[in-house]
Design brief:
By secondary structure, the protein is of the alpha/beta class. The chain is built from 8 helices and 6 strands, in the order βααβαβαβααββαα. Strands 3-4-2-1-5-6 form a 6-stranded parallel β-sheet, sandwiched between helices. The longest helix has 24 residues.
């Protein structure tokens, strides 16, 4: 079932630096991830006020299964708690939740909890919150290619990659904690996305940081492979 596209910008965030934030304070990485959830709450609340219609958050990549078992277990536990505790708030604030990525490798019961949360929030129009879990952009593109036919259009193929025909292309990708790479995140959707890198670790990221990133984005000229009016006239 598809939902109508939520108007506004599509911003993707690679939420990086939870572990480094914790290590700098002598805390466990698990506590860093817990503080990262608080940052998610702040950004989700701020996003609609800053003209963001779709917000995609990179929570757990396919490659993150390589991390220590205890850390993976803590991350999955936080996702389970988020689904349990946040759905009513999301519904109240008009936020639609979708989870993208594989579900067959998630701990028992988690896929069902995701489905219930998606169903409960489906009518939300203020913001479409997409959380990428066990996600790989390359795997999504490969799956779409295998499912396509020789006569498929770019629009139809895009719907296969994203899993939702109404998801707009990404306008801005933000990565926290100083790293400057995409790490297999929304590669198809970000073909013409602007990139913004900040050294701030994700647990410290807030509404002001989001506003700064959007201000920088709005100062850029987006030509999508074409020319601006001045260059075209010349």
């Amino acid at each position: 079932m598809q939902s109508e596209q939520t108007p506004g910008l599509h911003v993707g965030i690679i939420m990086d630096g939870n572990g480094r934030w914790a290590s700098a304070r002598g805390l466990s990485r698990a506590l860093g991830h817990k503080e990262g959830v608080e940052a998610i709450r702040r950004v989700v609340e701020a996003a609609p006020k800053q003209e963001i219609g779709t917000l995609t958050l990179y929570a757990f990549s396919c490659d993150n299964w390589r991390r220590p078992e205890a850390e993976v277990s803590a991350l999955m536990g936080l996702l389970r708690l988020y689904l349990r505790n946040e759905v009513s708030r999301l519904v109240e604030n008009g936020v639609r939740l979708s989870v993208i990525g594989r579900r067959d490798r998630l701990p028992e019961g988690l896929a069902a909890a995701i489905g219930r949360a998606e169903a409960a929030t489906f009518a939300g129009k203020a913001l479409h919150l997409r959380i990428a879990v066990d996600y790989s952009a390359r795997d999504a593109i490969l799956a779409a290619a295998l499912a396509s036919d020789p006569g498929i259009t770019r629009t139809a193929f895009s719907a296969l990659v994203t899993g939702d025909a109404c998801v707009p292309e990404v306008d801005l990708v933000i990565r926290t904690s100083g790293e400057q790479r995409l790490s297999d995140f929304l590669l198809w959707e970000s073909a013409y996305a602007e990139l913004h890198f900040t050294r701030r670790h994700w647990p410290d990221f807030g509404a002001g940081d989001l506003e700064d990133a959007l201000a920088a984005y709005r100062c850029r000229e987006r030509r999508f492979g074409g020319l601006d009016a001045t260059s075209a006239a010349a």
